UniProtKB/TrEMBL annotation:
<feature type="binding site">
    <location>
        <position position="119"/>
    </location>
    <ligand>
        <name>dCTP</name>
    </ligand>
</feature>
<comment type="pathway">
    <text>Pyrimidine metabolism; dUMP biosynthesis; dUMP from dCTP: step 1/1.</text>
</comment>
<feature type="binding site">
    <location>
        <begin position="127"/>
        <end position="129"/>
    </location>
    <ligand>
        <name>dCTP</name>
    </ligand>
</feature>
<feature type="binding site">
    <location>
        <position position="148"/>
    </location>
    <ligand>
        <name>dCTP</name>
    </ligand>
</feature>
<comment type="function">
    <text>Bifunctional enzyme that catalyzes both the deamination of dCTP to dUTP and the hydrolysis of dUTP to dUMP without releasing the toxic dUTP intermediate.</text>
</comment>
<dbReference type="InterPro" id="IPR011962">
    <property type="entry name" value="dCTP_deaminase"/>
</dbReference>
<feature type="binding site">
    <location>
        <begin position="101"/>
        <end position="106"/>
    </location>
    <ligand>
        <name>dCTP</name>
    </ligand>
</feature>
<feature type="site" description="Important for bifunctional activity">
    <location>
        <begin position="116"/>
        <end position="117"/>
    </location>
</feature>
<keyword id="KW-0378">Hydrolase</keyword>
<keyword id="KW-0546">Nucleotide metabolism</keyword>
<dbReference type="Pfam" id="PF22769">
    <property type="entry name" value="DCD"/>
</dbReference>
<feature type="binding site">
    <location>
        <position position="162"/>
    </location>
    <ligand>
        <name>dCTP</name>
    </ligand>
</feature>
<keyword id="KW-0547">Nucleotide-binding</keyword>
<comment type="subunit">
    <text>Homotrimer.</text>
</comment>
<feature type="active site" description="Proton donor/acceptor">
    <location>
        <position position="129"/>
    </location>
</feature>
<protein>
    <recommendedName>
        <fullName>dCTP deaminase, dUMP-forming</fullName>
        <ecNumber>3.5.4.30</ecNumber>
    </recommendedName>
</protein>
<dbReference type="InterPro" id="IPR033704">
    <property type="entry name" value="dUTPase_trimeric"/>
</dbReference>
Length: 192
């Protein structure tokens, strides 16, 4: 079930959902707007011939911090990682989906390219996969509303929420835009 504004407020009051820092004005009818932080990760295309998800390519991205009062310029066709200003924490019976903002979508800015799911139990800054599909550069201003978070209540509490030992939970507690962490078990064959 998708939570309404009043349910979002009750979950925040009950401590089952947290956004830090939190601004009540960011609550929408059934979502909460999230803001852009000042840290970005750009791809070092000059260092690699290809991206291989099966290995850890440590120098694949570099962090860029935008100075106070300045924007990050995202050029057409570019793909960068950024992160929410807010640390987002979900209890074991809530899951989230990061969605774009229509006004930014109409300009050609994609907020997440594919992965928008936030697991129950997750806590950390959410990594944004930003790309510009317009024909002109787009300026990204730290602090601007960059997306919205929709929260769903699970049919029962998760038995092994994100962060539990049972999973890798590679992004639990992540700070800032976090590059892909390679899987140790990236291929799982059928068990006979
Ligand atoms: N745009 C996104 C989407 C997700 N996450 C965070 C919240 C999720 O709970 C966590 C893991 O997301 P996935 O399960 O989609 O990622 P993986 O399966 O690759 O990682 P893991 O093996 O840790 O589950 O990453 C994020 O920071 N930014």
């Amino acid at each position: 079930m998708l939570l309404s504004d009043r349910d979002l407020v009750s979950e925040i009051k009950a401590g089952k959902l947290a956004l830090e820092p939190f601004e009540p004005a960011l609550i929408q009818p059934s979502s909460i707007d999230v803001r852009l932080d000042r840290h970005f990760r750009v791809f070092n295309n000059h260092l690699y011939t290809h991206i291989d998800p099966s290995v850890q390519q440590d120098d694949l991205t570099s962090e860029v911090e935008v100075p106070e009062g300045e924007p990050f310029v995202l050029h057409p066709g570019e793909f960068v990682l950024a992160s929410t200003l807010e640390v987002i924490s979900l209890g074991d019976q809530l899951a989230g989906r990061l969605e774009g903002k229509s006004s930014l979508g109409r300009l050609g800015l994609l907020t997440h390219s594919t992965a928008g799911f936030i697991d129950p139990g997750f806590s950390g800054h959410v990594t944004l996969e930003l790309s510009n599909v317009a024909n002109l550069p787009i300026t990204l201003w730290p602090g601007m509303k960059i997306g919205q978070l929709c929260i769903f209540r699970l049919s029962s509490p998760s038995e092994h929420p994100y962060g539990a030992e049972v999973y890798g939970s590679r992004y639990q507690g992540q700070r800032g835009p976090t590059p892909s962490r390679s899987w140790r078990n990236w291929r799982v064959w059928p068990t006979q």
